[in-house]
Design a protein that fits this description.
heterotrimer, A alpha+beta (395), B mainly alpha (107), C alpha/beta (223), A: 395 residues, alpha+beta, 2 domains, eleven-stranded mixed β-sheet, two-stranded antiparallel ribbon, 13 helices, C: 223 residues, alpha/beta, Rossmann fold, six-stranded mixed β-sheet, four-stranded antiparallel β-sheet, 7 helices, transmembrane helix (chain A), ABC3 transporter permease protein domain-containing protein (chain A), ABC3_permease_C (chain A), transmembrane (chain A)
């Protein structure tokens, strides 16, 4: 039996070169569709994963102040009230916002330098140092790689940032975040809370929000519940943030849905051409093979192998290309459409996540329709009298 | 029929390559660590996608920024989503962002 | 021995375009004979040949091979029976155009648990016998009608079948080739093979052991 299966395999492979046009149409269609979809899907999932990881870096709870349903500055006095809540380990007030340099937007974060824990190593700093209590109000900043590259500055240099009120503010770079942390820190400017207040011209006694850390034995949600007595506050935990971000990157994203639709339409078109164009030729062939003594199972085996080879070749190649396109080439052309990025630092790489589920779902929408549209007609022809199958094909 | 068909060999090679990519990629993500010191000093930093995309000037998107809880980084998350679709159209969006409901319901 | 009992084949039965192709045909074909089916076009020769070759199921009737009824057998059994015992030469030749002559000849062997390469000597011998050895590696579309017919003969005989069913085997060939085919059929008969041929060719009718004339689906005369 081994020889027979070897013969059938050889025959299947030969069909691929014999139906050259069909092979080319399927390969090209699947290649374009899967390359696009996989590049988007891998990137989308990468961003979602990145969001998951970055949310882990969020404080256990973020406390904001709401007025008329909108987020406003929160009185610094709230820090004492929050600190007294059972289970709260520490409360870090933050002033933060966005600033523009040239045409790019960056995140400016002001920290209470006195509450910065003293770490023996600060792994995410590449050169220089992180802020210390002595930096309060001195205009010292730690910046991300993106800004450093853009302004061509290094530790020890000064930079001038324009605030919203178009005031020139001079800052001194004391540290530079590392490449490794660049996905989080590339566009970040960290300064003391006093400098940030001055930069954003925020009133004394107010901050943007509080980062709250709870004791290890406590559940953040339980501690949040204990804070509900405070008026006008919104308490966010990591889970809420993650759900918000995931909503933003959800699979319902228009571009992704469009590409997914293109793939499905492509697969359907190929399936249709299979059924109509090749089906005719194949009908005759199946009849002839049956006459020679190929059983229905033999014919299904031939068509199954043929479709599997074709489907896996085109889809795998498409996905590999999609991966290379996204992970190594940074998805030129697509990245602007996909993410609306105006600028991408050279050292920054798109986060690409290749999950089993994405890979198999892409296989499912390409290989399966191909299998169905090839094997089912072949099976239907194989169970028909060979003479009738050949006669119908000739008609 | 004695011609060597490269396609089946390539199909196996490419599928195996993809599986290896998948495996190594997932492993690298698994061992990805977040920066503890950043968490304790800064809290959530932004995912660094510096941009000044026009879409973010949209007042509707400003509301969306707030819907993402107005935390550092939220702004950047909005930028990509702004291009993809108007999130307010998405019913699931309302469902997935607790505490943010732009619809009026009868009490 | 092949025995047909009251074979009837109706196409599109019960529909407005119903055609009775074969009606109530009973026939016994002894082994080791050349049997010719003749008659006007559309009289049901090809249909009857296909029914005998188990590639078309009759509407009613029974077929027995060596006394065993076969129509009730499974599709798998019939396929295997064809594989082991039958060779077909079709009226429309039915070679796969993208293959060479030799590849077409070896095609029936792909369904068997054997290496088609082992049959190369036999293929060469038959091709030489039929005078198309120099065309072995030509694509079908590069062959003339007569050459294609001869290649189809070699394909039918490559498995050395017990029964050969040939539908108008000399219709596309010249006189010289026809003579080669007559000689080949006689050789096969001498080796004990059973050959059922549908033809109008008077020369082929001359070498037949039995001639059955058909008209409008019925057997009207047997010589």
């Amino acid at each position: 039996m081994i020889k027979k299966h070897r013969n059938l395999l050889r025959y299947s492979f030969d069909c691929l070169s014999r139906y050259r046009m069909r092979t080319a149409v399927i390969v090209v269609t699947f290649l374009i569709a899967t390359t696009m979809v996989s590049a988007v899907l891998f990137t989308k999932e990468g961003l979602e994963r990145e969001a998951e990881i970055s949310v882990k870096m969020a404080p256990d709870l973020t406390v904001q102040y709401l007025k008329a349903g909108r987020v406003e500055l929160i009185p610094i006095d709230y820090a004492d009230t929050i600190a007294k809540v059972e289970g709260v380990k520490s409360v870090v007030p933050r002033i933060w916002g966005y600033a523009g340099i040239s045409t790019y937007t960056f995140t400016v974060i002001g920290l209470e330098t006195s509450s910065i824990p003293t770490y023996t190593t600060f792994g995410s700093i590449e050169s220089g140092r992180f802020l210390t209590p002595e930096d309060a109000g001195k205009g010292n900043i730690v910046i991300g790689k993106l800004i450093a590259g853009l302004l061509n500055v290094k530790v020890g240099d000064d930079i001038i940032l324009l605030s919203e009120s178009v005031e020139a503010n001079k800052f001194h770079v004391v540290g530079l975040f590392s490449d490794a942390s660049s996905i989080y820190t590339a566009d970040m400017i960290v300064m003391s809370i006093e400098d940030a207040r001055k930069f954003f011209r925020m009133p004394d006694g107010y901050v943007t929000d509080f980062a709250v850390y709870v004791e290890d034995y406590e559940q953040p949600a339980n501690v949040a519940a204990k804070m509900s007595f405070m008026p006008n506050v919104r308490i966010l935990d990591q889970d809420l943030l993650l759900r918000g971000y995931k909503a933003a990157y959800g699979a319902r994203g228009g571009i992704f849905v469009t590409l997914w639709t293109i793939l499905l339409v492509g697969a359907a078109l190929v399936a249709f051409s299979q059924a109509v164009v090749v089906g005719h030729e194949s009908k005759f062939e199946v009849g002839l093979l049956k006459t020679f003594g190929f059983s229905t199972l033999d014919i299904i085996e031939v068509r199954l192998v043929e479709s599997l080879v074709l489907g896996f070749f085109a889809t795998s190649l498409g996905m590999v290309l999609g991966y290379v396109y996204a992970a190594y080439l940074n998805a030129p052309g697509l990245v602007d459409i996909l993410l609306g990025w105006a600028f991408l630092p050279r050292e920054f790489r798109l986060p690409v996540y290749v999950s089993w589920s994405s890979v198999f779902s892409i296989y499912a929408v390409t290989v399966l329709p191909l299998l169905i549209t090839t094997v089912v007609p072949a099976w239907l022809n194989a169970i028909t009298d060979p003479e009738l199958a050949m006669r119908r094909a000739a008609a | 029929m004695k011609k060597i068909c490269l396609m089946p060999i390539m199909a196996i090679v490419l599928t195996s390559a993809l599986m290896i990519i998948c495996l190594t990629n997932q492993t690298s993500w698994q061992y990805r660590e977040y920066y503890k010191e950043i968490r304790h000093t800064i809290g959530l930093p932004s995912i660094a996608i510096g941009t000044n995309y026009e879409g973010t000037r949209n007042p509707l998107l400003e509301v969306f920024v707030r819907s993402l809880y107005d935390v550092p980084g939220g702004y950047d998350y909005v930028v990509p989503s702004s291009f993809i679709d108007t999130p307010l159209k998405l019913r699931e969006y309302h469902e997935s962002v607790p505490g943010f409901n732009m619809t009026i319901r009868r009490g | 021995m092949i025995e047909l009992r009251q074979i009837t084949k109706i196409y599109n039965k019960g529909k407005f375009n119903e055609v009775v192709a074969v009606q109530d045909v009973s026939l016994k074909i002894e082994d080791g004979k050349i049997v010719v089916l003749t008659g006007p076009s559309g009289c049901g020769k090809t249909t009857l040949l296909s029914i005998m070759g188990l590639i078309l199921t009759p509407t009613s009737g029974e077929i027995l091979y060596d006394g065993e009824p076969v129509l009730e057998s499974s599709d798998y059994w019939k396929t295997n029976f064809r594989k082991e015992n039958f060779g077909f030469v079709f009226q429309h030749i039915n070679l796969l155009p993208q293959y060479t002559a030799l590849e077409n000849i070896l095609l029936p062997l792909y369904a068997k648990d054997t290496d088609p390469g082992d049959f190369m000597d036999r293929a060469v011998e038959l091709l030489s016998k039929l005078g198309v050895i120099e065309r072995a590696n030509y694509l079908v579309e590069q062959l003339s009608g007569g050459e294609q017919q001869r290649v189809a003969f070699v394909r039918a005989l490559i498995k050395d079948p017990k029964y050969l069913f040939a539908d108008e085997p000399t219709v596309f060939v010249d006189e010289d080739t026809s003579r080669i085919i007559y000689r080949l059929l006689q050789d096969l008969r001498d080796k004990g093979k059973t050959i059922v041929v549908s033809t109008h060719d008077p020369e082929l009718i001359k070498i037949a052991d039995e001639v059955h004339r058909m008209d409008r689906g019925r057997l009207v005369q047997t010589k």
